[in-house]
Amino acid sequence: MLRAYSNGIKVEEVEGGLLVRQGAEAYVARNWRLTPPVEKLIETAFRSGLECMIRDDHPRQNARWPNPRGVVYLAFSPGPGGQWSLAIDTFREGRGDYGHAVFNGKYHEQFVAAEIPFVFEGRNKTAGHLVVTREDVIPTLEALSGFDHSVLALNRNTHDGAGFTTEYVIQREILTNWDQTPWSTRYDVVQDEFPVDGGLTSRRIDILARDRVTGDWLIVELKRAEAKPEAVRQVADYLLALGKQDKFAHGRLDGVLVAERIPLAVRTLAKVEGVAAYEVSWPLNLIRVV
Question: Please, how many CA atoms are within 13 Å of residue 167, restricted to the half-sphere of its CB?
Fold first, then answer.
C-alpha cells in the first residue's frame, strides 16, 4: 500500500514498517502500518500545517533509508529547520492504531490558552513536553491549525512584553542578546534544546555553547522564578551524560544554572557540584552568585 500526499510526501508499507519519503530522504517507521487511524493521523497533521516528516537532524542520518532499522516513531513538524512538533512512538498492532502523542513543550502556553488536556512527561511533573492521550490526539492536531508554530524556531523572536513569563522567554532573551552575556567573550552558541540522550523525547539542554579557541563546552540550564536543588542535580547529570559521549571527549565540560532567584541552599549545592550560578532579572541582567 502506497499513499502519495499533495505536499510530496509518500508513505508506503514495506517489510518491517512504513517507509516515509520526503524529497530525496526517507526512513522506516518500524512496525507501523498504514491503517485507517494512521492515515487519518497523517492527513490531519498535514491539514494543520505540520507538513514535514523529516527534519534536518531527525531521523539521524544513520537511521535513514536504506538502513531498514529506521526509528520507532512517526513525527511531524511545520518545516525541516526548526524543532519537532509532534512525535508518536507506539503503534498498537492488535488495534491497528497508535498510543499517546508527545507535543513539543514550546506549545505550553498555547495549550493552556486553548484548554487542551495534557500532562507533562513523567520525568518532569511541572515542565517539559506535553503528553496527550490517544483519544485527544486528533482534536489537538485540529486545534494546532491555529497555533503559532514560530515558537519552534531555533532563532526565536524577542519577547513582546515585560517579565519572564516562562523559561522560554529567558532563553529567547539570552539567545538574541548573547553578546551581552558573560559567556560571549569565550563561547559561541552551538544549539538550544540540545538532545542529551538522542531521539525526539530526549532530555534537552537549554543552551549548549563551545569555546571558540579551546573547544571547551558550556551547558546553560534555565529556571524561571526560584531554582530548586533539583536544578543543580539536573546540570550535574547533563555534564555526566555528555562526558560519556565521544563527541564531548575533547574539551572541558562546564555547567551554568540561571534563575530569577537562587536561594542559599541551592547556591551551596552548586558550589559543591562545581556549577556556576547566575540570578537573572528583566530584561537581561545577569549577576553571578556562585
Answer: 23
Residue 111 CB partners (closer than 8 Å, separation 6+): 103, 118, 130
Would you say 3 and 39 are in contact if contact means Cβ atoms under 8 Å apart? Answer: yes
Residue whose grid cell is 506549545: 107
Q: Return d(Cα 41, Cα 50) in angstroms, integer.
A: 11
Residue 159: pLDDT band by 50, 70, 90 thresholds? very low
pLDDT in tens, 214-231: 999 999 999 988 999 999
- Parallel/antiparallel/unpaired status of strands 285-288 and 276-281: antiparallel
Backbone angles phi, psi at 167, to 5 degrees: -65, -30
Place of cell 491503517: 35
Instruction: Report how far residue 68's alpha carbon sits from residue 64's, in angstroms, rounded to the nearest whole number.
Output: 8
List, edge to edge, every strand of the sheet that includes 86-88: 74-76, 86-88, 101-103, 130-132, 119-120
CB 104, CB 130: distance < 8 Å: yes
* DSSP for 185-224, written as a single string: TTEEEEEEEEESSSSTT--EEEEEEEETTT--EEEEEEEE
Return the closest-CA partner of residue 134 out of 96, 170, 178: 96
pLDDT tens for each residue of 96-134:
999 999 999 889 889 989 999 998 876 555 557 899 999
pTM of the model: 0.58
Q: Which of 112, 114, 106 is nearest to 146 (CA)?
A: 114
pLDDT tens digit sequence for 163-219: 787 787 898 889 889 999 999 999 999 888 788 876 555 688 999 999 999 999 999
- Distance, CA of 191 to CA of 188 (rounded, Å): 9
